[in-house]
Amino acid sequence: MKKTYLMLHVAVILAGFTGVFGKLITINELMLTWYRVFFSAIILFFVVRFFKGQKQTTNPEKIRIGKTGLLLAVHWIFFYASIKYANISIGVVCYCLTSFFTAIFEPLINRKKFNIIQLALSLLTLIGISLIFHFDASYQLGILLGVISSAVAALYTIYNEKLVQHYDSKQIIFYQMTASTLGVGLLIPVYYYFFPQQQYMPTNNDFIYLFLLALVCTVGLYVMFAEILKKISAFTVNLTFNLEPIYAIILAFLFFNEGQEVNASFYIGLCFVTSSVILQTVLSLKKKG
Questions:
Q1: Rounded to an integer, what distance in angstroms lies between the CA atom of residue 78 and that of residue 62?
Q2: What are the helix (H) ranges across 51-115?
Q3: CA–CA separation, 183 and 162 (whole Å)
Q4: DSSP E strands: which ranges in the chain?
Q5: Is the pLDDT of residue 288 over 70?
């Protein structure tokens, strides 16, 4: 179990780089997401073919897995929109609300009782995020997009937790990335109609960043993510991913000077978020051990 928690925190560090790539890549959030899933699908095609002996899946099963992947693509679109309309710090901190939405959605979807401890820890996270948002009210649109992103991410994790119990993680991500490539691709003409002034063609640097984003922060990260969900609950995974803002914000401070935009309430809020993660990790380890 300790190895699984170690893998979880490595995945969180990798996730911290997604916001940085979102800031570095110049194309709009829809095209960024499309290239990410497209490159990931190509990489995973060869990965799946290399690993033989995996469980055969029927077409209805592939469609079921693919539909869950569409939730992930929608989450990314709103996540990158949040970063582009606000900044990295806002985008990644909004992701902390995923554990809050998981604590609400999971009992409703799985028809079980609400967990008082999960709700309490989520409330601690919510207080932290409220303090963080207090430092500047000029990013309202970015915050709203980030909140939507976290709600969709919670749904993805809950449904994905069921899939990983029955299918190989590499197959799951491959079908999800393939479905997302098709689904997001259908939105491109619609998006262009409403936002023709945005940038749709990647630069040379964008292609490099997109490939790294697909290889490391998508294929590597989400295969690990699926393996982790086999042993750790969706709530614990989402709550631990609240540490992602800490890594991402440090990178944002170093490379984009975002430290000049925050004040004391921002750091106090981060302390609340971090405390909720530490408490949940300790409680989970005691429960398993």
A1: 25
A2: 59-85, 88-94, 97-110
A3: 22
A4: none
A5: no
Gap between the Cα atoms of 80 and 164, Å rounded:
26
In 3D space, the residue among 29, 17, 249 whose CA is nearest the CA of residue 135 turns out to be 249
In the three-class reduction of DSSP (H, G, I as helix; E, B as strand; rest coil), residue 231 is classed as coil
The CA R_g of the chain, rounded to the nearest whole Å, is 18
Please give the pLDDT value at position 27. 94
Element of type H or E holding 190:
helix 169-194
Question: pTM of the predicted model, to two decimals?
Answer: 0.83
Give SS3 for 262: coil
Tokens 């409330």 -> residue: 123
Q: What is the pLDDT of residues 182-236, one digit of tens each?
A: 999 999 999 999 988 888 999 999 999 999 999 998 888 877 877 887 788 777 7
How far apart, in whole angstroms, are the C-alpha atoms of residue 97 and residue 91? 11
